[in-house]
Write a structure and sequence with these properties.
The chain is mainly beta. The chain has four helices and 19 strands. β15 and β16 form a beta hairpin.
């Protein structure tokens, strides 16, 4: 990533070196791809139709980052981050939140790191730091079942604390209740944490997060366990997670949570009147064939238990295969194939039960 460093601590010659030094790193990702999707017609009558499109982010969602670090000496640093998401195909914002991350914090060699603001939650941190789907990319942007097991990946109004000691790492978060929730944890109350252990080639983590909708006081609880093994060019990962809903948890929030599961799309997956719990099992890996070429594959098995079995039960079997070739440290091309099979009472919105995606694209980091 090309970095533009703006030195703010020393404004002119002769200023005392005792002053703290700050740096602002401006960087980001620009990613776009061509995608062919089967069984993508908008209605049951046209469900067999295919769809060709240019999509904004075939590997990663495009973004612009501002990372701030102020070294105040003695191992103490001030940190801040602003991150804006972009839809490259249209040039529009990637979210109603202009800043998908916006936080400030302090970090010390003695007490760890504390941060406040809108930021990634503990489930997302546990996944990306321990059992990311691919070594070179935590997940594939247009096909990311694992994000459906992170309760929206981010929370507003969050206080988060991380501490490490040798191979151990622990992180806790708390999001304050500030109005009615309109997305998972956006303005609701959340509390959770993870505990991670790393030793040589192995890493394991357990994480949990509970989100309370402030308008109904209903809760959803996520519990995930995962691990990885890295040896030279080989990377393997596996994970299991469970999402448990209070009866009456708002359907809109469930739909937002489920939006990552298989590219998701069907009423029964996201209607809490039918949903008691969902579980996901994931395993896969990456192999670095050459210094430039990586190949990888992942498989996810999703099972939903309904409040009423006759209408709420169902399964999803999901698979993704990726090849990524790097021309340089910043520019790469990729191709991936995704395959989905839905069973039981789960269907796509157009009533299809199978779908294939073929995607090729370019990603540039700056």
């Amino acid at each position: 990533m090309k970095k533009i460093s703006l030195v703010l601590g020393l404004l002119a010659a002769g200023i005392s070196s005792a002053y703290a030094q700050s740096s602002v790193t401006i960087g980001g990702i620009v990613d776009a791809a061509f995608q062919h999707k089967t069984n993508a017609g908008p209605t049951a009558a046209t469900r067999g139709d295919s769809l060709n499109s240019v999509i904004p982010g075939g590997m990663s969602q495009s973004r612009l980052n501002f990372n701030v670090v102020e070294d105040m000496g003695g191992g103490l640093k001030a940190l801040a981050n602003l991150e804006h998401r972009i839809l490259v195909d249209t040039g529009s914002a990637g979210s109603s939140n202009f800043w998908q991350q916006s936080w400030v914090g302090l970090q010390s060699n003695d007490f760890g790191r504390i941060s406040l603001g809108r930021q990634f939650n503990v489930l997302f941190d546990a996944m990306t730091s321990t059992y990311a789907s691919y070594k070179y990319s935590p997940y594939v942007e247009p096909f990311k079942p694992e994000i459906g097991m992170t309760l929206g990946a981010r929370n507003d109004n969050m206080v988060k604390y991380l501490i490490t000691a040798g191979g151990l790492a622990a992180e806790v978060q708390y999001s304050l209740s500030e109005g009615n929730a309109t997305a998972p944890g956006a303005n609701g109350k959340s509390v959770g944490g993870f505990l991670k252990y790393s030793a040589g080639e192995f890493a394991v983590v357990g994480a949990t997060l509970t989100v309370t909708d402030t308008s109904t006081t209903k809760q959803v609880k996520q519990t995930n366990f995962g691990g990885s093994y890295t040896s030279g060019p080989l990377y393997l990962s596996a994970a299991w997670g469970k999402t448990a809903f209070d009866l009456g948890f708002p359907a809109a929030l469930n739909a937002a949570i489920a939006s990552g599961v298989g590219g998701a799309l069907n009423a029964n997956l996201a209607t809490t009147a039918l949903t008691d719990s969902r579980t996901m099992t994931q395993f896969g890996g990456t192999y670095q064939v050459t210094s430039a070429l990586n190949i990888g594959a992942n498989y996810w098995n999703v099972k939903q238990n309904g409040v009423v079995a006759a209408t709420g039960n169902g399964t999803m079997k999901l698979m993704n295969v990726v090849a990524d070739y790097a021309f340089s440290k910043r520019t790469e091309v990729y191709a991936h194939f995704d395959h989905s099979v839905l069973g039981g009472n789960l269907t796509y919105a157009n009533t299809a039960t199978k779908r294939d995606d073929f995607t090729v694209g370019v990603r540039h980091r700056f």
